[in-house]
Fold this protein.
Amino acid sequence: MKPTDPAGHLSDRALSIARATTLLGGSDEASLELSSRRTGMSFQRTRMSADRTLMSIIRTALSLIGFGFTIYQFFGHMLETVGGLRPHAPRNFGVALVALGLVLLTLGIVYHVRYMQGLRAERALMIEEGLIHGESHYPVSLTLITAGLLWLLGLLAIVSMTFNVAPFG
């Protein structure tokens, strides 16, 4: 095993049941300590699961926003060259798809924020009661920041499509 091997580093730091029993002086205390650590890690897994859910919402919203903007651009150019479509049909359909993507993204962000607030409150309560350790930090979700930036980009796309102004007009 290499000295920089992460698995080896983690296994060196992990408490074995025998070591926890020796350190804590009894099997009940060791069991309580290990379950407390597992419960603390389950909060991290739940947080990552909520991030994955928001990522799937981002993926769907991005598809809708991108497809709506593409339809607007493609059929707008076809309208100029071929004709035959009503003048505002591509814009209206594109704006509708981008708006649908923004609504989906807004609902996903609101759900994620509320869920994370509840999860943080539950974690704080369990830390206060001494049921889990609060040693690991609980960072701000980068997925949430990405969702917010995509929401702004979608808003700029709608403004650009509606008023035919920069940055996408």
